[in-house]
């Protein structure tokens, strides 16, 4: 089940705003919750991309994400095996482990396509993670602006 973004403008918004100001850690939780939603939505976009024919299923099976806070796992996608893509799933997990280790501080959303030929496919103009990256470029600023707006309204 996909996460739903925290919508601070819904009924009870005043109570939510007051609570966020009372407990600063909740701002961080709102950001984490929304980034988890972004990860889910970007994963859907990447897996549904029709930019290439995935004959074995390995490339699509190698796509996934992880959300970290100060190097600790918050949430991550599954690396669902598509067609006969068990190798892709395993390589996606391994690549995610390697890249995640590079981010010991902050809140980080890491996205991967773990097959070694993913870059080659992308370089030929096919959409491997492009649609996911474009969606993230749209959703992350929107989400952060919502949180900032709510904080600024209370100051």
Describe this entry's structure for a reader:
The chain has 155 residues and is α+β, with helices and mostly antiparallel strands. It has one domain (13-154). 54% of the residues lie in helices and 12% in strands. The protein has six helices and three strands; from the N terminus they run αααββαβαα. The protein has helices at residues 13-22, 25-48, 58-61, 86-100, 118-123, 130-154, and strands at residues 63-69, 72-76, 107-113. Strands 2-1-3 form a three-stranded antiparallel β-sheet. The longest helix is centred in the C-terminal third of the chain and has 25 residues, at 130-154. It is elongated. The chain starts with 12 loop residues before the first helix and ends with a helix. Residues 1-11 have low confidence and may be disordered.
Keywords:
single chain; 155 residues; alpha+beta; 6 helices; disordered N terminus
How would the blueprint of this fold be written?
Elements: H1 13-22, H2 25-48, H3 58-61, E1 63-69, E2 72-76, H4 86-100, E3 107-113, H5 118-123, H6 130-154
Antiparallel strand pairs: 1-2, 1-3
Helix pairs in contact: 2-6
Helix content: 40-55%
Number of strands: 3
Tell me the number of helical segments per DSSP (H or I, 4 or more residues long): 6
Main β-sheet: number of strands, strand sense, barrel status?
3 strands, antiparallel
| Beta-strand content | 5-15%
Shape summary: elongated
Over all CA atoms, what is the radius of gyration? 17 Å
Structural class: alpha+beta
Low-confidence stretches: 1-11
Strand order of the largest sheet: 2-1-3
Mean pLDDT score: 86
Instruction: Domain count, please report it.
Output: 1
Would you list the SSEs in sequence order as H and E?
HHHEEHEHH
What is the first-to-last residue Cα distance? Answer: 36 Å
């Amino acid at each position: 089940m996909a996460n739903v973004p925290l919508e601070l403008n819904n009924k009870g918004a005043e109570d939510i705003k007051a609570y966020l100001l009372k407990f600063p850690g909740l701002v961080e939780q709102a950001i984490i919750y929304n980034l988890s939603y972004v990860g889910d939505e970007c994963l859907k976009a990447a897996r549904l991309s029709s930019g290439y024919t995935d004959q074995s299923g390995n490339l699509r099976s190698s796509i996934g994400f992880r959300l970290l806070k100060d190097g600790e796992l918050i949430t991550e996608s599954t690396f669902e095996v598509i067609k006969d893509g068990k190798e892709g799933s395993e390589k996606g997990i391994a690549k995610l482990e390697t890249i995640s280790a590079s981010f010991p501080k902050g809140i980080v959303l890491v996205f991967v396509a773990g097959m070694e030929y993913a870059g080659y496919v992308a370089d030929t103009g096919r959409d491997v993670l492009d649609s996911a990256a474009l969606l993230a470029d749209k959703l992350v600023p929107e989400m952060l602006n919502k949180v900032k707006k709510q904080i600024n309204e209370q100051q």
